[in-house]
């Protein structure tokens, strides 16, 4: 890859990893009770809620570091789609007050994560040149 592509991959990793980490830190501080209750209300086990720590803390850190970027991208994308389906399912077919798609931010996060799953982290990453870079 050339340096411009590698720089673009680094910027993409930062663009989704950094802001999502704040969501995860918020859940570390305030807990995940509302997520567990949402899961229970949908007939799923509440302990699945602990997966949010993987998707919103571990995966963003891995993306920022560029370590196991493909795996982290897949986990990150699954986390975003799960959040969309569990918490914002009513908004999937809705527009916000400015005419934008109600769930556009989550979808952008998910799509960038999927793209990182396919590309890997690039040259400016801790792990490179393997299938899970």
Automatic annotation (TrEMBL):
Keyword list, A-Z: Cell membrane, Membrane, Transmembrane, Transmembrane helix
Entry keyword Transmembrane helix: yes
Keyword Lipid metabolism in annotation: no
Gene Ontology CC: plasma membrane
Primary site of residence: membrane
Entry membrane topology: Multi-pass membrane protein
Record's subcellular location: Cell membrane
Transmembrane segments: 12-35, 47-67, 74-94, 106-126
Superkingdom of this protein's organism: Bacteria
Protein family (similarity comment): Belongs to the DoxX family.
Name of the protein this chain belongs to: DoxX
Protein's organism: Myroides odoratus
Lineage of the species this protein comes from: Bacteria, Pseudomonadati, Bacteroidota, Flavobacteriia, Flavobacteriales
């Amino acid at each position: 890859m050339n340096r411009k592509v590698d720089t673009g991959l680094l910027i993409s990793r930062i663009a989704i990893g950094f802001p999502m980490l704040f969501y995860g830190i918020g859940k570390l501080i305030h807990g995940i009770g509302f997520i567990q209750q949402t899961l229970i209300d949908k007939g799923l086990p509440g302990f699945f809620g602990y997966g949010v720590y993987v998707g919103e803390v571990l995966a963003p850190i891995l993306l920022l570091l560029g370590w196991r970027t493909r795996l982290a991208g897949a986990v990150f994308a699954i986390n975003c789609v799960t959040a969309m389906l569990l918490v914002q399912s009513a908004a999937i077919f809705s527009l916000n007050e400015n005419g934008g798609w109600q769930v556009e931010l989550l979808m952008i996060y998910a799509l960038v994560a999927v793209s990182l799953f396919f590309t890997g982290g690039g040259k400016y990453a801790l792990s490179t040149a393997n299938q899970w870079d």
